[in-house]
């Protein structure tokens, strides 16, 4: 009960809309009432002028143009005046003199009065600021060439205006309440109820984002383009994407737990491989020694990758061990590793030897290797790596001649499990590469992609300090 009552006294959006509509309607009615008062005053006075002229015509039909005292008083009472004078052809005739001593303390000429002036005088009359008796002059509606002058008792006019104001105010209040109710029902249906659906869905999703169902879009809302319908569709889409992301994160967390459990055995396997590689490096055959050196380097990188991957899964981006690194040498090493895996790929590098940014060589090597391998696996036959310095940033451009990224991959770029450009891919390569670049305080962006190739750009600070 308190909840419902609270909505009506202003604690809900619908109640506030209701009272706002009522208040605005009342303000409009007040703005209309003031001119209406002025018009009603003028109409009342003109009615007195007309009735006074009729009373004067009645007197003119009497013998010798004179009536007895009781008839005079009755004619003055019926006309609502204290005295009547006619002015015609320059002659002024006191048709009906006052019943007693009447002293007009003010005068009004209705022919020259404006609506604004009439409103002000009506308010003066209502609040007792006008003289008690006033002389009113106006052309007769019956005979425009006849000027009628009457003395009006303002308290009588004040009672009439207050009665008119009370009646109009009551009608205005009824109209305001009815208008407010109609607007309330309409806004409650088209605005408040949809907003309530949105807020309830948001609340449910906040309480249990993994299991709460996304907002159900009604068929009528699918084709509407107003703000609430758009917000509902966007909220449903966001909830669907967030829930999918939470499920992916849960799966990744489970995967990280599984990887952590097997990391010990994996390190033992790599240790055995490293031991065998060390023994092979002592072989008398130069070819075997060369291959063993490459194998040792690969096993060491694999061991380091397992360690850093576990740290990344548990704590976020890996800590960086920065040092001045010759970028040309780093890119050449990554290009050599890529060629071993993709023999048909032609890699061209254009890296000035003087560029030596402060970075973690191992992590940047992983980022570049992911980008180059992605290009090769996407079908590129030629890869061009170039670099330069711009506004304190080291710019590394990776341009291939592959078929370009499909629209689905572009829409989900850098998102694991959704941003892969090839069938069966996971999209982890780009996601990991961007995380590693961001760990250096830089950014990995897609510059362009088309059927003629794809252009990625890495920008990192030359000196992070």
UniProtKB/TrEMBL annotation:
Start and end residues of each Histidine kinase domain: 261-464
Keyword list, A-Z: ATP-binding, Cell membrane, Kinase, Membrane, Nucleotide-binding, Phosphoprotein, Transferase, Transmembrane, Transmembrane helix
Main location: membrane
InterPro entries recorded: 2C_sensor_his_kinase, HATPase_C_sf, HATPase_dom, His_kinase_dom, HisK_dim/P_dom, HisK_dim/P_sf, Sig_transdc_His_kin-like_C
Places the protein is found: Cell membrane
UniProt GO molecular function: ATP binding; phosphorelay sensor kinase activity
Pfam families: HATPase_c
Entry membrane topology: Multi-pass membrane protein
EC number: 2.7.13.3
Catalytic activity, reaction form: ATP + protein L-histidine = ADP + protein N-phospho-L-histidine
Transmembrane segments: 17-37, 169-187
GO terms under cellular component: plasma membrane
The protein's name in its UniProt record: histidine kinase
Species of provenance: Acidiphilium cryptum (strain JF-5)
């Amino acid at each position: 009960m308190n909840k419902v009552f609270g909505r009506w006294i202003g604690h809900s959006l619908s109640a506030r809309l209701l009272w706002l509509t009522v208040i605005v309607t009342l303000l409009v009615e007040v703005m209309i009432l003031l001119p209406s008062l002025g018009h009603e005053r003028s109409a009342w006075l003109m009615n007195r002028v007309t009735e006074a002229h009729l009373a004067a015509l009645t007197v003119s039909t009497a013998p010798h143009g004179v009536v007895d005292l009781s008839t005079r008083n009755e004619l003055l009472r019926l006309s609502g005046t204290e005295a009547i004078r006619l002015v015609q052809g320059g002659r002024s005739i006191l048709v009906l003199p006052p019943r007693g001593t009447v002293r007009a303390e003010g005068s009004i000429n209705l022919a020259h009065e404006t609506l604004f002036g009439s409103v002000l005088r009506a308010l003066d009359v209502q609040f007792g600021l006008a003289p008690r008796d006033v002389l009113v002059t106006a052309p007769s509606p019956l005979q425009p060439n006849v000027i009628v002058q009457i003395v009006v008792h303002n308290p009588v006019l004040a009672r009439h205006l207050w009665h008119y104001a009370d009646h109009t105010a009551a009608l205005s209040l009824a109209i305001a309440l009815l208008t407010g109710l109609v607007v309330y029902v309409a806004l409650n249906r088209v605005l408040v109820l949809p907003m309530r659906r949105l807020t309830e869905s948001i609340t449910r999703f906040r309480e249990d984002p993994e299991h709460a169902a996304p907002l159900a879009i009604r068929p009528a809302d699918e084709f509407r383009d107003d703000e609430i319908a758009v917000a509902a569709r966007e909220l449903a889409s966001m909830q669907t994407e967030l829930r999918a992301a939470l499920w992916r994160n849960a799966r990744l967390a489970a995967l990280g737990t599984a990887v952590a459990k097997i990391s010990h055995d994996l390190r033992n396997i790599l240790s055995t491989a490293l031991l065998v590689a060390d023994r092979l490096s002592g072989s008398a055959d130069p070819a075997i020694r060369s291959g063993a050196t490459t194998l040792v380097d690969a096993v060491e990188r694999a061991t380091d990758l397992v360690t850093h991957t576990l740290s990344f899964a548990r704590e976020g981006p890996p800590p960086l061990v920065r040092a001045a690194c010759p970028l040309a040498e780093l890119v050449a090493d990554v290009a050599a590793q890529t060629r071993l895996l993709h023999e048909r790929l032609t890699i061209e590098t254009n890296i000035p030897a003087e560029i030596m940014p402060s970075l973690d060589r191992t992590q940047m090597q992983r980022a570049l290797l992911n980008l180059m391998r992605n290009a090769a696996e996407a079908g590129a036959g030629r890869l061009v790596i170039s670099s330069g310095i711009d506004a304190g940033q080291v710019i590394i451009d990776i341009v291939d001649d592959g078929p370009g990224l499909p629209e689905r991959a572009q829409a989900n770029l850098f998102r694991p499990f959704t941003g892969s450009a090839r069938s069966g891919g996971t999209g982890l390569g780009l996601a990991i590469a961007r995380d590693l670049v961001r760990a250096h305080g830089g950014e990995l962006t897609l510059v362009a992609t088309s059927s003629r190739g794809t252009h990625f750009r890495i920008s990192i600070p030359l000196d992070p300090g």
